[in-house]
């Protein structure tokens, strides 16, 4: 995408995050990689649901502004969560978009001590994998960067305890879509627990979801070990991780994931 298109898309994502209740006030932040050394990011202090494209700023990998200030953004500063975004880009060349939000149901579950690493919702298992919760860290500080530092290489979605979520992807739009999946899953988990408890998917069915995740190029290092520990899979099912760049094309990824999940659900036995 061109820089102009990215600016417009980030503003659209900010609007959707606000409308869907994933952020409030001036909270949350969004960024997209422009090049190896430049990142387009939302500035601090703006309501993300009402931004204009010319208010976004460009920073280098050290977090310093490198764009030419305009009348619309000369007074604005980089987001206080920028170090967390930059850590994602530094560790993973495949990441081109980062979204940090405060999805209420997901955050509430971390406050209650809920563990998201469960094989319950098929789409979440494929799209997100097993989502870890980072220890509590002070919002708007480098502590957030430190909290995700040892997790981001192996995960595309991370919960920040008592605070918010972090989702990443090859595009900023896909990073936003992972946020939608995360909060939608959290609502399902909450309702299931209120109805008597979330029942896990049988291990042999989870194996199919893990294989689908691998086939779609979504598998991350350590996935099989995590699924084995959390969902009762046998380690003999393990297979080498397919590097994202070598994976098959994933155009219309959401539709492909849903087709795979429908196939598995048709045979699902708890």
Entry summary:
The chain is α+β, with helices and mostly antiparallel strands and 270 residues long. The protein is 40% helix and 10% strand.
Structure report:
- The chain has 270 residues and is of the alpha+beta class.
- The chain folds into two domains: 3-194, L-fuculose-1-phosphate Aldolase (3-Layer(aba) Sandwich); 203-265, no CATH class.
- It is 40% helix and 10% strand.
- The chain is built from nine helices and seven strands; from the N terminus they run αβββαβααβαββαααα.
- It has helices spanning 3-19, 82-91, 104-111, 122-127, 142-149, 172-194, 203-215, 223-231, 253-265; strands at 29-33, 39-41, 57-59, 97-101, 133-134, 157-160, 164-169.
- It has a seven-stranded mixed beta sheet with strand order 3-2-1-4-7-6-5, with helices on both faces.
- Strand 1 (29-33) and strand 2 (39-41) form a beta hairpin.
- It is globular.
- It starts with a helix and ends in a 5-residue tail after the last helix.
- The model is unreliable at 237-250 (pLDDT under 50).
Topology:
Elements: H1 3-19, E1 29-33, E2 39-41, E3 57-59, H2 82-91, E4 97-101, H3 104-111, H4 122-127, E5 133-134, H5 142-149, E6 157-160, E7 164-169, H6 172-194, H7 203-215, H8 223-231, H9 253-265
Parallel strand pairs: 5-6
Antiparallel strand pairs: 1-2, 1-4, 2-3, 4-7, 6-7
Order of strands in the sheet with the most strands? 3-2-1-4-7-6-5
Count of all domains: 2
Considering the protein shown, what is the CATH homologous superfamily of the largest domain?
Class II aldolase/adducin N-terminal domain
Strand content: 5-15%
CATH architecture of the largest domain, please?
Answer: 3-Layer(aba) Sandwich
CATH class of the largest domain: Alpha Beta
The DSSP helix count reads 9
């Amino acid at each position: 995408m061109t820089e102009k298109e990215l600016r417009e898309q980030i503003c659209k994502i900010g609007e959707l995050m606000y409308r869907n209740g994933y952020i409030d006030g001036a909270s949350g932040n969004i960024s997209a990689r422009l090049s190896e050394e430049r990142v387009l990011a939302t500035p601090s202090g703006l309501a993300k649901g009402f931004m204009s494209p010319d208010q976004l700023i460009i920073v280098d990998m050290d977090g310093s502004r490198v764009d030419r200030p305009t009348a619309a953004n000369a007074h604005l500063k980089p987001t206080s969560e920028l170090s967390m975004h930059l850590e994602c880009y530094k560790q993973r060349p495949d990441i081109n978009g980062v979204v940090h939000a405060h999805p209420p149901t997901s955050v509430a579950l971390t406050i209650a001590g809920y563990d998201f690493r469960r094989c319950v919702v098929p789409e979440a298992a494929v799209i997100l994998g097993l989502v870890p919760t980072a220890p509590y860290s002070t919002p708007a500080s480098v502590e957030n960067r430190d909290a995700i530092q040892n997790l981001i290489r192996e995960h595309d979605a991370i919960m920040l305890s008592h605070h918010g979520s972090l989702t990443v992807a090859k595009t900023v739009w896909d990073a936003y879509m992972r946020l939608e999946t995360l909060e939608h899953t959290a609502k399902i988990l909450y309702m299931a627990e209120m109805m008597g408890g979330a029942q896990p998917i049988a291990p042999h069915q989870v194996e199919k979801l893990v294989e689908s995740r691998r086939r779609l190029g979504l598998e991350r290092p350590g996935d099989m070990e995590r699924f084995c520990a959390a969902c009762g899979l046998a380690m003999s099912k393990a297979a080498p991780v397919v590097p994202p760049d070598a994976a098959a094309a994933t155009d219309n990824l959401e539709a492909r994931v849903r087709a795979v999940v429908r196939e598995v659900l048709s045979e699902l036995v708890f």
